[in-house]
Write a structure and sequence with these properties.
mainly beta; AttH-like fold; Lipocalin; 13-stranded mixed β-sheet; nine-stranded antiparallel β-sheet; 22 strands; 7% helix
Protein backbone atom coordinates (compact mmCIF):
# COMPACT_ATOMS: atom_id res chain seq x y z
CA UNK A 1 0.00 0.00 0.00
CA UNK A 2 1.20 3.49 -0.86
CA UNK A 3 0.83 5.69 2.25
CA UNK A 4 1.05 9.49 2.10
CA UNK A 5 0.01 12.58 4.08
CA UNK A 6 -0.20 15.54 1.71
CA UNK A 7 -3.31 17.47 0.68
CA UNK A 8 -1.80 17.77 -2.81
CA UNK A 9 -2.45 14.06 -3.32
CA UNK A 10 -6.16 14.62 -2.72
CA UNK A 11 -6.58 15.81 -6.29
CA UNK A 12 -8.47 13.44 -8.61
CA UNK A 13 -6.12 11.00 -10.31
CA UNK A 14 -6.15 9.63 -13.84
CA UNK A 15 -7.60 6.14 -13.71
CA UNK A 16 -7.18 4.37 -17.04
CA UNK A 17 -7.03 0.78 -15.77
CA UNK A 18 -10.28 -1.24 -15.67
CA UNK A 19 -11.51 -1.77 -12.11
CA UNK A 20 -9.71 1.26 -10.69
CA UNK A 21 -11.45 3.50 -8.14
CA UNK A 22 -11.02 6.59 -5.98
CA UNK A 23 -12.88 7.96 -2.99
CA UNK A 24 -12.84 10.93 -0.62
CA UNK A 25 -13.95 9.89 2.86
CA UNK A 26 -15.26 12.18 5.63
CA UNK A 27 -16.70 11.41 9.06
CA UNK A 28 -17.62 13.58 12.02
CA UNK A 29 -19.31 13.44 15.41
CA UNK A 30 -20.77 16.13 17.64
CA UNK A 31 -19.19 16.94 21.00
CA UNK A 32 -21.72 14.83 22.92
CA UNK A 33 -21.22 11.84 20.64
CA UNK A 34 -24.91 11.63 19.78
CA UNK A 35 -24.65 12.51 16.09
CA UNK A 36 -22.34 10.83 13.60
CA UNK A 37 -22.13 11.36 9.86
CA UNK A 38 -20.12 9.65 7.13
CA UNK A 39 -19.93 11.06 3.59
CA UNK A 40 -17.95 9.45 0.75
CA UNK A 41 -17.54 10.76 -2.81
CA UNK A 42 -16.58 8.08 -5.36
CA UNK A 43 -15.00 8.35 -8.80
CA UNK A 44 -15.48 4.72 -9.75
CA UNK A 45 -17.47 3.12 -6.93
CA UNK A 46 -16.06 -0.35 -6.13
CA UNK A 47 -19.46 -1.46 -4.79
CA UNK A 48 -21.32 -0.82 -8.05
CA UNK A 49 -22.69 -4.05 -9.49
CA UNK A 50 -22.75 -2.44 -12.93
CA UNK A 51 -19.06 -1.64 -12.61
CA UNK A 52 -18.17 -5.10 -11.33
CA UNK A 53 -20.18 -6.85 -14.04
CA UNK A 54 -18.46 -4.75 -16.69
CA UNK A 55 -15.04 -5.59 -15.23
CA UNK A 56 -15.82 -9.32 -15.06
CA UNK A 57 -16.93 -9.23 -18.71
CA UNK A 58 -13.84 -7.27 -19.83
CA UNK A 59 -16.13 -4.53 -21.07
CA UNK A 60 -14.87 -1.21 -22.40
CA UNK A 61 -17.18 0.47 -19.87
CA UNK A 62 -15.28 -0.96 -16.88
CA UNK A 63 -13.68 2.41 -16.13
CA UNK A 64 -13.99 4.51 -12.99
CA UNK A 65 -15.25 7.57 -14.85
CA UNK A 66 -18.44 5.71 -15.79
CA UNK A 67 -19.51 5.05 -12.19
CA UNK A 68 -19.52 8.22 -10.02
CA UNK A 69 -21.34 7.85 -6.72
CA UNK A 70 -21.87 9.27 -3.25
CA UNK A 71 -22.80 7.64 0.04
CA UNK A 72 -24.27 9.52 3.01
CA UNK A 73 -24.96 7.96 6.40
CA UNK A 74 -26.38 10.01 9.27
CA UNK A 75 -26.72 8.40 12.71
CA UNK A 76 -28.36 9.57 15.93
CA UNK A 77 -27.50 7.71 19.12
CA UNK A 78 -26.17 4.81 17.10
CA UNK A 79 -29.17 4.41 14.81
CA UNK A 80 -29.37 5.45 11.14
CA UNK A 81 -31.77 8.32 10.43
CA UNK A 82 -30.70 8.85 6.82
CA UNK A 83 -28.96 6.53 4.39
CA UNK A 84 -28.15 6.90 0.73
CA UNK A 85 -25.68 5.27 -1.64
CA UNK A 86 -26.33 6.62 -5.11
CA UNK A 87 -24.64 6.20 -8.47
CA UNK A 88 -25.29 9.07 -10.88
CA UNK A 89 -24.99 9.33 -14.66
CA UNK A 90 -21.64 10.59 -15.90
CA UNK A 91 -23.29 13.81 -17.07
CA UNK A 92 -24.17 14.66 -13.45
CA UNK A 93 -20.68 14.32 -12.00
CA UNK A 94 -17.37 16.17 -12.30
CA UNK A 95 -13.95 15.82 -10.64
CA UNK A 96 -11.69 18.85 -10.97
CA UNK A 97 -8.34 20.00 -9.57
CA UNK A 98 -6.87 23.47 -10.10
CA UNK A 99 -3.20 24.22 -10.76
CA UNK A 100 -2.66 24.96 -7.06
CA UNK A 101 -3.90 21.44 -6.19
CA UNK A 102 -7.29 22.53 -4.81
CA UNK A 103 -10.26 20.38 -5.72
CA UNK A 104 -13.91 20.67 -6.65
CA UNK A 105 -16.06 17.57 -6.92
CA UNK A 106 -19.72 17.28 -7.88
CA UNK A 107 -21.90 14.15 -7.76
CA UNK A 108 -25.56 14.85 -8.42
CA UNK A 109 -26.38 18.01 -6.47
CA UNK A 110 -23.73 17.24 -3.84
CA UNK A 111 -20.41 19.08 -3.94
CA UNK A 112 -17.01 18.96 -2.23
CA UNK A 113 -14.60 21.90 -2.34
CA UNK A 114 -11.12 22.28 -0.86
CA UNK A 115 -9.64 25.69 -0.16
CA UNK A 116 -6.41 26.63 1.62
CA UNK A 117 -5.40 29.81 3.46
CA UNK A 118 -1.82 29.64 4.68
CA UNK A 119 -1.55 26.32 6.50
CA UNK A 120 -5.31 26.06 7.10
CA UNK A 121 -7.20 23.49 5.04
CA UNK A 122 -10.93 23.94 4.63
CA UNK A 123 -13.18 21.30 3.05
CA UNK A 124 -16.78 22.33 2.40
CA UNK A 125 -19.40 19.71 1.63
CA UNK A 126 -22.75 20.87 0.28
CA UNK A 127 -25.33 18.08 0.45
CA UNK A 128 -28.59 18.00 -1.46
CA UNK A 129 -29.74 14.40 -1.72
CA UNK A 130 -33.35 13.51 -2.54
CA UNK A 131 -34.45 9.86 -2.33
CA UNK A 132 -37.32 8.15 -4.21
CA UNK A 133 -39.11 7.31 -0.97
CA UNK A 134 -39.35 10.94 0.11
CA UNK A 135 -36.36 11.22 2.47
CA UNK A 136 -34.01 14.15 1.87
CA UNK A 137 -30.88 15.67 3.40
CA UNK A 138 -29.70 19.18 2.58
CA UNK A 139 -27.12 21.52 4.08
CA UNK A 140 -23.45 22.11 4.75
CA UNK A 141 -20.55 20.40 6.50
CA UNK A 142 -17.27 22.27 6.95
CA UNK A 143 -13.98 20.61 7.97
CA UNK A 144 -11.15 22.93 9.07
CA UNK A 145 -7.66 22.05 10.27
CA UNK A 146 -4.00 22.82 9.76
CA UNK A 147 -2.39 20.88 6.94
CA UNK A 148 -0.75 17.72 8.24
CA UNK A 149 2.96 17.29 7.56
CA UNK A 150 3.76 15.66 4.24
CA UNK A 151 6.61 13.89 6.07
CA UNK A 152 4.33 12.28 8.63
CA UNK A 153 4.87 8.78 7.27
CA UNK A 154 8.39 9.32 5.96
CA UNK A 155 9.10 7.45 2.74
CA UNK A 156 6.02 5.89 1.18
CA UNK A 157 5.76 2.11 1.44
CA UNK A 158 5.22 1.27 -2.20
CA UNK A 159 4.58 3.76 -4.98
CA UNK A 160 3.67 0.89 -7.33
CA UNK A 161 1.10 -0.64 -4.98
CA UNK A 162 -2.44 -1.22 -6.18
CA UNK A 163 -3.96 0.79 -3.32
CA UNK A 164 -3.00 4.25 -2.06
CA UNK A 165 -4.10 5.96 1.15
CA UNK A 166 -3.61 9.67 1.80
CA UNK A 167 -4.26 11.03 5.30
CA UNK A 168 -5.35 14.63 4.81
CA UNK A 169 -7.21 15.74 7.96
CA UNK A 170 -6.79 13.39 10.93
CA UNK A 171 -8.45 15.83 13.35
CA UNK A 172 -10.57 18.67 12.03
CA UNK A 173 -13.03 21.12 13.53
CA UNK A 174 -16.45 20.44 12.03
CA UNK A 175 -19.56 22.57 11.76
CA UNK A 176 -22.74 20.79 10.67
CA UNK A 177 -25.83 22.61 9.43
CA UNK A 178 -28.30 20.20 7.86
CA UNK A 179 -32.01 19.87 7.31
CA UNK A 180 -33.21 16.27 7.52
CA UNK A 181 -36.58 15.47 5.98
CA UNK A 182 -37.91 12.06 6.90
CA UNK A 183 -40.83 10.68 4.92
CA UNK A 184 -42.05 9.06 8.16
CA UNK A 185 -41.13 11.66 10.81
CA UNK A 186 -41.14 15.03 9.09
CA UNK A 187 -38.47 17.74 9.05
CA UNK A 188 -35.68 18.26 11.57
CA UNK A 189 -32.86 20.80 11.92
CA UNK A 190 -29.50 19.09 12.55
CA UNK A 191 -26.98 21.66 13.78
CA UNK A 192 -23.87 20.92 15.81
CA UNK A 193 -20.11 21.38 16.11
CA UNK A 194 -17.65 18.60 16.67
CA UNK A 195 -14.55 16.74 15.52
CA UNK A 196 -14.02 15.18 12.10
CA UNK A 197 -11.66 13.17 9.95
CA UNK A 198 -10.84 13.01 6.23
CA UNK A 199 -8.75 10.73 4.06
CA UNK A 200 -8.47 9.86 0.38
CA UNK A 201 -8.09 6.41 -1.21
CA UNK A 202 -6.97 5.48 -4.72
CA UNK A 203 -7.03 2.03 -6.28
CA UNK A 204 -5.31 1.07 -9.52
CA UNK A 205 -7.10 -2.28 -9.66
CA UNK A 206 -10.07 -4.00 -7.96
CA UNK A 207 -9.56 -4.20 -4.20
CA UNK A 208 -9.67 -8.00 -4.19
CA UNK A 209 -6.44 -8.04 -6.25
CA UNK A 210 -4.57 -6.10 -3.56
CA UNK A 211 -5.71 -7.70 -0.31
CA UNK A 212 -7.94 -10.37 1.20
CA UNK A 213 -9.59 -8.14 3.81
CA UNK A 214 -8.89 -5.15 6.04
CA UNK A 215 -9.82 -3.36 9.23
CA UNK A 216 -9.62 0.41 9.43
CA UNK A 217 -10.54 2.92 12.10
CA UNK A 218 -9.92 6.27 13.74
CA UNK A 219 -10.37 7.46 17.34
CA UNK A 220 -10.26 10.95 18.80
CA UNK A 221 -8.97 10.89 22.37
CA UNK A 222 -8.79 14.05 24.51
CA UNK A 223 -5.14 14.68 23.57
CA UNK A 224 -4.46 12.22 20.76
CA UNK A 225 -5.87 10.78 17.55
CA UNK A 226 -5.36 7.16 16.52
CA UNK A 227 -5.65 5.85 12.96
CA UNK A 228 -5.12 2.18 12.17
CA UNK A 229 -5.01 0.12 8.99
CA UNK A 230 -4.87 -3.67 9.37
CA UNK A 231 -4.41 -5.25 5.95
CA UNK A 232 -4.41 -8.95 5.16
CA UNK A 233 -2.69 -9.65 1.85
CA UNK A 234 -2.63 -13.42 2.36
CA UNK A 235 -2.81 -15.42 5.56
CA UNK A 236 -1.90 -12.82 8.19
CA UNK A 237 -2.51 -9.18 9.02
CA UNK A 238 -0.03 -6.36 8.75
CA UNK A 239 -0.63 -4.11 11.76
CA UNK A 240 -0.18 -0.38 11.17
CA UNK A 241 -1.42 2.19 13.66
CA UNK A 242 -0.35 5.80 14.10
CA UNK A 243 -0.87 7.81 17.27
CA UNK A 244 -0.92 11.54 16.59
CA UNK A 245 -0.84 14.55 18.88
CA UNK A 246 -3.64 17.10 18.71
CA UNK A 247 -1.59 19.20 16.28
CA UNK A 248 -1.22 16.27 13.86
CA UNK A 249 2.37 15.39 14.76
CA UNK A 250 3.35 11.74 15.05
CA UNK A 251 3.49 10.60 18.69
CA UNK A 252 4.24 6.91 18.15
CA UNK A 253 3.65 3.88 15.94
CA UNK A 254 1.97 0.65 17.04
CA UNK A 255 2.95 -2.21 14.75
CA UNK A 256 1.89 -5.24 16.78
CA UNK A 257 -1.56 -6.50 17.69
CA UNK A 258 -4.19 -9.18 17.87
CA UNK A 259 -7.82 -9.82 16.93
CA UNK A 260 -10.39 -11.69 19.00
CA UNK A 261 -14.09 -12.13 19.87
CA UNK A 262 -15.25 -12.94 16.35
CA UNK A 263 -18.84 -12.45 15.19
CA UNK A 264 -20.84 -13.27 12.06
CA UNK A 265 -23.94 -11.73 10.52
CA UNK A 266 -26.78 -13.24 8.50
CA UNK A 267 -24.52 -13.27 5.43
CA UNK A 268 -21.85 -15.29 7.29
CA UNK A 269 -19.40 -12.40 7.15
CA UNK A 270 -17.00 -12.91 10.06
CA UNK A 271 -15.06 -10.13 11.77
CA UNK A 272 -13.38 -9.52 15.12
CA UNK A 273 -15.14 -7.37 17.70
CA UNK A 274 -11.96 -6.79 19.76
CA UNK A 275 -8.71 -5.30 18.41
CA UNK A 276 -5.57 -4.85 20.52
CA UNK A 277 -2.67 -2.72 19.26
CA UNK A 278 0.70 -2.25 20.94
CA UNK A 279 4.43 -1.65 20.44
CA UNK A 280 7.74 -2.52 22.12
CA UNK A 281 7.45 0.53 24.39
CA UNK A 282 4.36 -1.15 25.92
CA UNK A 283 2.08 1.56 24.61
CA UNK A 284 -1.26 0.01 23.81
CA UNK A 285 -4.78 0.60 22.59
CA UNK A 286 -7.69 -1.70 23.39
CA UNK A 287 -10.54 -1.38 20.89
CA UNK A 288 -14.04 -2.75 21.25
CA UNK A 289 -16.16 -2.59 18.10
CA UNK A 290 -19.18 -2.09 20.30
CA UNK A 291 -22.10 -1.11 18.12
CA UNK A 292 -22.85 -2.27 14.58
CA UNK A 293 -23.88 0.68 12.41
CA UNK A 294 -23.86 -1.11 9.06
CA UNK A 295 -23.81 -4.80 8.25
CA UNK A 296 -23.85 -6.46 4.84
CA UNK A 297 -22.48 -9.31 2.73
CA UNK A 298 -18.98 -7.81 2.49
CA UNK A 299 -18.81 -4.87 4.90
CA UNK A 300 -19.23 -3.78 8.53
CA UNK A 301 -19.20 -0.29 10.03
CA UNK A 302 -18.98 0.04 13.81
CA UNK A 303 -19.23 2.79 16.38
CA UNK A 304 -16.37 1.69 18.57
CA UNK A 305 -14.82 2.47 21.95
CA UNK A 306 -11.14 2.47 22.84
CA UNK A 307 -8.77 2.89 25.78
CA UNK A 308 -5.29 4.30 25.19
CA UNK A 309 -2.49 3.54 27.68
CA UNK A 310 0.89 5.32 27.52
CA UNK A 311 2.79 3.95 30.55
CA UNK A 312 5.88 6.19 30.31
CA UNK A 313 3.72 9.29 30.77
CA UNK A 314 1.13 7.61 32.97
CA UNK A 315 -1.58 8.50 30.43
CA UNK A 316 -4.90 6.69 30.23
CA UNK A 317 -7.45 8.10 27.79
CA UNK A 318 -10.83 6.94 26.56
CA UNK A 319 -12.25 7.70 23.16
CA UNK A 320 -14.87 6.68 20.63
CA UNK A 321 -14.66 6.38 16.89
CA UNK A 322 -15.67 4.80 13.61
CA UNK A 323 -14.19 1.47 12.50
CA UNK A 324 -14.76 -0.67 9.41
CA UNK A 325 -14.16 -4.15 8.08
CA UNK A 326 -14.30 -5.18 4.43
CA UNK A 327 -13.92 -8.46 2.54
CA UNK A 328 -13.54 -7.32 -1.10
CA UNK A 329 -13.76 -10.65 -2.94
CA UNK A 330 -17.38 -10.87 -1.79
CA UNK A 331 -18.13 -7.63 -3.63
CA UNK A 332 -17.82 -9.56 -6.89
CA UNK A 333 -20.08 -12.46 -5.82
CA UNK A 334 -23.19 -12.22 -7.99
CA UNK A 335 -25.18 -14.15 -5.38
CA UNK A 336 -25.22 -10.94 -3.31
CA UNK A 337 -26.17 -8.59 -6.17
CA UNK A 338 -29.96 -8.71 -5.53
CA UNK A 339 -29.33 -7.58 -1.94
CA UNK A 340 -26.96 -4.83 -3.04
CA UNK A 341 -29.55 -3.53 -5.51
CA UNK A 342 -32.01 -2.85 -2.68
CA UNK A 343 -29.56 -0.42 -1.05
CA UNK A 344 -27.40 0.82 -3.91
CA UNK A 345 -29.40 3.36 -5.92
CA UNK A 346 -28.93 3.84 -9.62
CA UNK A 347 -30.58 7.22 -10.01
CA UNK A 348 -31.65 6.41 -13.57
CA UNK A 349 -33.46 3.25 -12.36
CA UNK A 350 -34.00 3.00 -8.58
CA UNK A 351 -35.06 -0.33 -7.10
CA UNK A 352 -38.72 -0.62 -6.15
CA UNK A 353 -37.78 -1.16 -2.48
CA UNK A 354 -36.16 2.29 -2.42
CA UNK A 355 -39.47 3.88 -3.38
CA UNK A 356 -41.04 2.75 -0.10
CA UNK A 357 -39.71 4.60 2.97
CA UNK A 358 -40.69 1.70 5.26
CA UNK A 359 -39.21 -1.09 3.15
CA UNK A 360 -36.05 0.87 2.37
CA UNK A 361 -35.36 1.34 6.08
CA UNK A 362 -35.21 -2.43 6.51
CA UNK A 363 -32.12 -2.43 4.29
CA UNK A 364 -30.31 0.06 6.56
Amino acid sequence: MNITSDFKFDKPAKKTAPGSYEWWYFDAADIKGEWHIVVIFYDGCPFSTRYNKAWSNNSDTALAENHPAISISLYYKGEPVFYSMSEYPVSQASFFASKDQLIEIKVGNNTLKLSKAGELLHHTIELDEQLPGGDALKGTLSFSSEAVSNKLFGISDDMKAGHGWNLTQPRAKVDCKLVLHSALRGEQQVKWSGIGYHDHNLGKEPMKNEFKDWYWGRFHFPEHTLIFYLMNKGKSYEYKAWLLNRNGGLRSILSEGSLSAYMSNLFMLTAARTINLNNKEKEKVMIQQSHVLDSGPFYYRFRSDAILHLPDEDILEQGSGITEYIHPSRIHSSIFFPLVHMRYRYTDNPHWVQKSPKLYRWTW
